[in-house]
Amino acid sequence: MGAKINIQRASRKDARDIHEVMKRVHAQMDRKDLYVVDDLPYIEECTKDHGMVYKAVDLDGSIVGFLIVYVPQEDDGHMGKYVNMEKEEYHKTAYMDSIAVLPEYRGYELQKKLLSYAEEQEEMRMYRHLFATVSPDNPYSLYNFLSMGYEIVCRDRKYGGLERYILYKNQFQ
């Protein structure tokens, strides 16, 4: 199963299927606070204007995992504040915003493969500063990010008060 997965850039027409994967993963979780489900318009927006979306596709063409990369606006909520980033650097920032893999496809390092694939893409080379958030109670996701060179910079409340680690990676170091 794991060797038969192809990772590629998603398009707007994939947004509904990605949203379904997101909802399915969330529905199967014992602790719903570990993962936040985005709405469909947000996913659609990330496929065209404010980010990139990458999908893991099985041989039958079904989406079995995804990574949403969001390119933030230069506002007061920018995660650059967690690393004392100068505002001039804000436009060089991308958030590894949402990532999920269907339960039956876990164990094949798809989360790491999606992250690695995204970081290697030409469209990502303009982003020096990469951020992510992970629940302190999600050791698998945390391990994957740490093994990819991300560092925990702090712990804060996000997404309506949920406890999260803020992770950071300088892609050019």
Q: Could you please describe the fold and organization of this structure?
A:
This protein has 173 residues and is of the alpha+beta class. The chain is built from four helices and seven strands; from the N terminus they run βααβββαβαββ. The chain has helices at 15-27, 40-48, 110-120, 139-147, and strands at residues 6-9, 51-57, 63-70, 93-101, 129-134, 151-158, 162-170. A seven-stranded mixed β-sheet has the order 1-2-3-4-5-7-6, sandwiched between helices. Strand 4 (93-101), helix 3 (110-120) and strand 5 (129-134) form a beta-alpha-beta unit. The longest helix is centred in the first third of the chain and has 13 residues, at 15-27. The radius of gyration is 15 Å and the shape is globular. The N and C termini lie far apart (34 Å).
